[in-house]
Amino acid sequence: ETVVVATKNAGKVREFAHAFGKLGMEVVSMFDYPDLPDVVEDGVTFAENARKKAREVAEALGMPVLADDSGLEVAALGGDPGVYSARYSGEGATDARNNEKLLRELARVSNGGESAERLSDGTKLLSEARFVCTLALYDPATGTFTESEGYVSGSIMESPRGESGFGYDPLFWVNSESKGMAEMTKEEKQAIGHRGRALADLLQKLEV
Ligand code: ITT
């Protein structure tokens, strides 16, 4: 069985391929449909964007499609970058530039950070934060959505740790695991992460 995921994010593709692989399903993504037009993500909520991506691609392909809209909410930045997480550093944004921008913005709002909490190696934690993932599955045959969401809370570190994952993972400390998100295996990240939790919730709703 194949699951179509309306994403052009290679990090998401790897995580979905891992998760669905364990269920004996194969994932295809927008990398497999290079001719489909990009969906304009102009929603003001994660859920709106997820629904829009799922529906436009599902209607174009004439089959059910899953979409993921996700991002990072940083307490000291009033919830930014939020739905703008992918484009945080502007035109030509990359994960590396987005992470630099995040540290720059946190440096601006901190008052020296002398009171900041520290990890045992001295690394400062600059703000509380959480990852959000919303999933929307749209079935064009019935015109219905199945939706779910997942969260994981943590803190933003002043310097990166770990080599796995993608996006903001290198700066995200998972308090409950005492580990950086980019220090986790796919399996560990799926178990505790926002995407894994959203997916578990979705599968329960679909009774898979
Ligand atoms: P698609 O819309 O094609 O799926 P995108 O990268 O534009 O890809 P989003 O609009 O959902 O996806 O933006 C999500 C951004 O939030 C993404 O670019 C990452 O920087 C960040 N993000 C989402 N999930 C993450 C995760 O598990 N770990 C680290 N960063 C994540």
From TrEMBL:
The keyword Hydrolase applies. The keyword Nucleotide-binding applies. SUPFAM superfamilies: ITPase-like. Its cofactor is Mg(2+). GO terms for cellular component: cytosol. The active site is at residue 69. Substrate binds at residues 7-12, 70, 166-169, 189, 194-195. Binds 1 Mg(2+) ion per subunit. Belongs to the HAM1 NTPase family. Homodimer. This is dITP/XTP pyrophosphatase. It comes from Paenibacillus rhizovicinus. The gene is rdgB.
